[in-house]
């Protein structure tokens, strides 16, 4: 499907629209959210000081902790009667972050998800099988209404029940499947066990989100299921899934729907903007949200922005596939490592299956890392040579060698049927 005109806007016109919407958002937040009013007052800032997006760095940043401190509804900017729906993001510790939507917010959400689906290659009249969890989590319902907005059929299966997923997609001829990347691999394995050839399943596109996906992982999914693997991105604090999505033409970065969300990239340590094209932490400002306007939210996700023209015709900026989080950083004996860097090195090696786990511990006050990696089912080389290659590559590329490297047989590392897969186990505290 052709991109909508706004997705291919002239950048100058887009900037004017963003500036106008930013002024409205700041005024709305200042008038209706005591948290923002007090913060701006303390900084000696008035909404009138913000003329356009060029002034955005004057504004305060919003952090995860602010949602926690203002729990449950301190950040809401509308009266209860205007709130049409509530969602919450699963906090691993403590209270969840509660988020809210007016009717208009829900329309915007459906619109940006529909745009994302169209970019992924989903068609009006097609069938989308949604395996994101329904309920308070924004994944399930967020995708659901976007599919309807696109004019496709939605099969609201939700997460889990993998055999049933396989049967339904076969019987109902689903074109598109939505899930986490680790679940896509689990689906392929389950289909195989059931006697299907995963490449013969009717799906032609898998849209994955909620979990980072490195390029080798994506290639593995595309190869095993004969699909296009498309990355979608979003977070509840901003709206849910549909903040950005890859186009199937380029599959090279996720177009951010900039008429609704304004992106910045900052140095995670200082909060200062980085040079264009440099990696840093993604910061997002909502431009049209009514129930929960958010100024300069620090997502914790590491990415870079790419303003080059895209072959799909969209002019909206692309963010790199998020493979690391500012707070995922592992410091092991003083070496800074992201799990995604280890994944990148290891999964590229012949004979390695895309399942691994990292265990961190302390021995005699020293950090110790144990890396466990699964071998491919039909491994056609010796484990010894594989182990040697893994150790050498890690040492060459990352200047790092795990204290213990275990190669295990296919299927030995636990799979996650529901929710996000856990790969790092830090036992140091
Ligand atoms: Zn594109």
Automatic annotation (TrEMBL):
Domain AMP-dependent ligase C-terminal: 334-428
Pathway: Aromatic compound metabolism
Domain (AMP-dependent synthetase/ligase) ranges: 61-284
The organism's place on the tree of life at top rank: Archaea
Gene Ontology biological process terms in this record: phenylacetate catabolic process
GO terms for MF: nucleotide binding; phenylacetate-CoA ligase activity
Keywords: Ligase, Nucleotide-binding
Subunit-level organization: Monomer.
The name this protein goes by in its record: Phenylacetate--CoA ligase
């Amino acid at each position: 499907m052709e991109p909508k005109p706004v997705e291919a806007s002239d950048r100058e016109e887009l900037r004017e629209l963003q500036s106008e919407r930013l002024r409205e958002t700041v005024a709305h937040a200042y008038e209706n959210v005591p948290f923002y009013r007090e913060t701006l007052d303390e900084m000696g800032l008035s909404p009138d000081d913000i003329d356009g997006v060029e002034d955005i760095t004057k504004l305060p940043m919003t952090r995860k902790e602010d949602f926690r401190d203002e729990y449950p509804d301190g950040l809401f900017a509308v009266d209860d009667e205007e709130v049409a729906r509530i969602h919450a993001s699963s906090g691993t510790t403590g209270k969840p972050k509660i988020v809210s939507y007016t009717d208009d917010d829900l329309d915007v959400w459906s619109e940006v998800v529909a745009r994302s689906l169209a970019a992924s290659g989903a068609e009006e009249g097609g069938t989308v099988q949604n395996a994101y969890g329904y309920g308070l989590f924004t994944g399930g319902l967020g995708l659901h209404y976007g599919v309807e907005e696109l004019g496709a059929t939605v099969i609201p299966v939700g997460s889990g029940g993998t055999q049933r997923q396989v049967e339904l997609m076969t019987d109902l001829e689903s074109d598109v499947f939505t899930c986490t990347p680790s679940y896509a691999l689990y689906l392929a394995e389950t289909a195989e066990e059931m006697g299907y050839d995963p490449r013969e399943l009717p799906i032609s596109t898998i849209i994955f989100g909620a979990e980072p996906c490195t390029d080798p992982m994506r290639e593995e999914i595309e190869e095993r299921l004969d699909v296009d693997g498309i990355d979608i991105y979003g977070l509840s604090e901003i709206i849910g899934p549909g903040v950005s999505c890859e186009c199937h033409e380029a599959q090279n970065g996720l177009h951010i729907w900039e008429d609704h969300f304004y992106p910045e990239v900052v140095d995670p340590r200082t909060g200062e903007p980085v040079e264009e094209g440099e990696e840093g932490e993604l910061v997002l400002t909502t431009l049209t949200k009514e129930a929960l306007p958010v100024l300069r939210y620090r997502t914790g996700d590491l990415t870079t922005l790419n303003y080059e023209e895209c072959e799909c015709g969209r002019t909206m900026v692309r963010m790199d596939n998020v493979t690391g989080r500012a707070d995922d950083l592992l410091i092991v004996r003083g070496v800074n490592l992201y799990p995604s860097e280890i994944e990148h090195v290891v999964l590229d090696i012949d004979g390695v299956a895309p399942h691994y786990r990292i265990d961190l511990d302390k021995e005699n006050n020293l950090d110790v890392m144990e890396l466990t990696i699964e071998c491919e089912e039909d491994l056609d080389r010796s484990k010894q040579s594989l182990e040697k290659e893994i150790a050498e590559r890690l040492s060459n590329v990352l200047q790092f060698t795990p204290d213990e490297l275990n190669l295990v047989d296919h299927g030995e590392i636990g799979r996650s049927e529901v929710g996000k897969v856990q790969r790092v186990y830090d036992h140091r505290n």
